[in-house]
Design goal:
Length: 67
Amino acid sequence: MTAPMLIEAQQIDLETLVAAIAHSPIIVAAPPPPRRRLPAGYDEVDVVILDWIAAEGRRVAADLIRM
């Protein structure tokens, strides 16, 4: 095969591949939405406050265990 014929054959194969993909039932799943830490209606400040309360609870519990 000469170079121009090789390029022409590759072009035809590429066109066939593009047509096959365009008409195929390929489905790509979307990534799952990010999981919420709290129900809808809570603001980020609520999350920060609740995280602080939980950290304080762990700190106090650790102090009680040492006693």
